[in-house]
Amino acid sequence: MNKLRALLAANQKRGSFRAEANTIYLYDMIVADEFEAEWWGGISPAGFIAQLKAMKGDVAIRINSPGGDVFGAVAICQAMREYDGAITVHVDGYAASAASVIAVAAPKVIMAPGSFMMIHNAWTVAIGNVDDMMATAELLDKVDGSIAESYATKSGKEAAVFRDYMAKETWFTASEAVDVGIADAVAEDKPKATAKWDMSAFAAAPKLPEPPAVDNQNTEDHVSQRVRQHAARMLERAA
């Protein structure tokens, strides 16, 4: 099984995709079409585009995705470019692989504290003779060049810079992504997404930090205090 299929299989039907008001939650893998979405789970370009087309005004796209099909991501990117309103991407967890391509298509990218953006060379599987293999290698090189151009367009840097990062499978922290120009800011609020993806298909995937623990005792004390205060006011009114 090639690496992309391994990624899809390891994360089959783990994700979620929804749209609320003018926010799209892309907490899922990216797949090529509806058939793959039905089999593996994940969001297809058709599913994403249908939600985006139903919106008006400015849109937020929140991402926590291990990536997936690059051509599916390219179709999503084009829909984002054609959208009339402003689009802001928020990376809540991972924007890895194809998900990073979607992220940098937005005019504004905000990284959550502790989030990661990963870029790497494209994967595929090929069957055939030496000519088939050479043709596949040629195609992969073109795909990698196109992906590098998308990062270069976002950052204002040369595509060659990103070809080097892609060859090494580079995981950028939030501040590193801002420094290299593929993100615009680090959010001040707490992380919203937790790590739930199996990232073993990648060579050096870091784990997202656990969200801050909720102090249940303090929460319960606060609720009890409010109940007591409300009861006291009711008694004062009755008197």
What does this entry look like structurally?
- Strands 1, 2, 3, 4, 5, 6, 7 and 8 form an 8-stranded mixed β-sheet that branches.
- By secondary structure, the protein is of the alpha/beta class.
- The longest helix is centred in the middle third of the chain and has 26 residues, at 130-155.
- It contains 9 helices and 8 strands.
- The protein starts with a helix and ends with a helix.
- 45% of the residues lie in helices and 17% in strands.
- The model has no long low-confidence stretch (mean pLDDT 87).
- The chain has one domain: 2-enoyl-CoA Hydratase, Chain A, domain 1 (Alpha-Beta Complex), CATH 3.90.226.
- Helix 3 (45-53) packs parallel to helix 4 (70-82) and helix 6 (130-155) crosses helix 7.
Structural class: alpha/beta
- Largest β sheet strand count, sense and barrel closure: 8 strands, mixed
Rg (CA only) = 21 Å
Looking at CATH, the homologous superfamily is 2-enoyl-CoA Hydratase, Chain A, domain 1
CATH hierarchy, class:
Alpha Beta
CATH architecture: Alpha-Beta Complex
What's the total count of β strands? 8
Briefly note the CATH topology name.
2-enoyl-CoA Hydratase, Chain A, domain 1
- The proportion of residues forming helix, as a percent range, comes to 40-55%
Uncertain segments are none
Please tell me what the overall shape is.
globular
Q: How many domains is the backbone divided into?
A: 1
Beta-strand content bin = 15-25%
End-to-end span in angstroms? 76 Å
The number of helical segments is 9
The mean pLDDT is: 87
Spell out the helices and strands N to C: HEEHHEHEHEEHHEHEH
Region (Disordered): 207-239
GO molecular function: ATP-dependent peptidase activity; ATPase binding; serine-type endopeptidase activity
Family: Belongs to the peptidase S14 family.
Protein name: ATP-dependent Clp protease proteolytic subunit
